[in-house]
Amino acid sequence: MATVTNWIEHLSAEEVQGAIYPGVGSEGILVILGFIIWIGWHVLAARQESEKLSELARRRPGANDWKNNVTDG
């Protein structure tokens, strides 16, 4: 295995120049993809919460209905 004694010379060599890690240049695409996933997550979460709240509103629970779920203990 070859060892590197001078990083400046190594990184400026023709076979290495510019490519010091895989995926160079794809950062912008990854940021856009992450943003799309983040927005999609919020849309799905809002949709699910709206469905739960509308179901609860259809049942019209009274002020004391929570007492039915409390166990005697």
Quickly list its features.
73 residues, 2 helices
Structural class, by secondary structure, is mainly alpha
Helix share of residues? 40-55%
Return the average pLDDT rounded to an integer.
81
Low-confidence stretches: none
Q: Could you tell me the strand content as a percent range? A: under 5%
The number of helical runs is 2
Number of strands: 0
Distance between the termini: 70 Å
The largest sheet is: none
Bulk shape = rod-shaped
The string of secondary-structure elements, in order, is HH
Rg from alpha-carbon coordinates: 29 Å
Structural commentary:
This protein has helices at 7-11, 27-59. It is rod-shaped. It is built from two helices and no strands. The mean pLDDT is 81. It is mainly α and 73 residues long.
Give a nutshell description of this structure:
With 73 residues, this protein is mainly alpha-helical.
Could you outline the blueprint of secondary structure elements for this entry?
Layout: H1 7-11, H2 27-59
